[in-house]
Amino acid sequence: MINCILWGNTDPNGVGESAQIIADSNMSVSNCCIQGLDTLAGNGNIGVNPLFVDSNGVDGEPGTGDEDLRFAV
């Protein structure tokens, strides 16, 4: 996995790295932005909020198609 943003996913433990991705020893993850970055630190990975314009959209619910996932820079 290269150049990906893994952010805003949840699991029973919250929003940490395990909610974003579960990588095994055969998986290579590099140059990615991962919320709760912990065990995958290194290889150019970062844990800084990507600051999307509106990740929840007008209706306030993520994943419904009205999100604005451009970077707010």
Give an account of the 3D structure.
With 73 residues, the protein is mostly beta strands. Helix content is 5%, strand content 15%. It contains one helix and four strands. The strands form two sheets. A two-stranded parallel sheet has the order 1-2. The protein is globular. The two termini are 25 Å apart. The model has no long low-confidence stretch (mean pLDDT 94).
Q: What keyword list fits this structure?
A:
73 residues, mainly beta, two-stranded parallel ribbon, two-stranded antiparallel sheet, 1 helix, 4 strands, 5% helix, 15% strand
N-to-C terminal Cα separation, in Å?
Answer: 25 Å
Overall helicity: under 10%
SSE series: EHEEE
For the largest beta-sheet, the strand count, sense and barrel status come to: 2 strands, parallel
Structural class: mainly beta
Q: What is the C-alpha radius of gyration, as a whole number of Å?
A: 13 Å
Average pLDDT, rounded to a whole number, is: 94
Give the beta-strand count: 4
- The parts where pLDDT drops under 50 for at least 5 residues are none
Apparent shape: globular
Strand order of the largest sheet: 1-2
**Beta-strand percent range:** 15-25%
Number of helices: 1
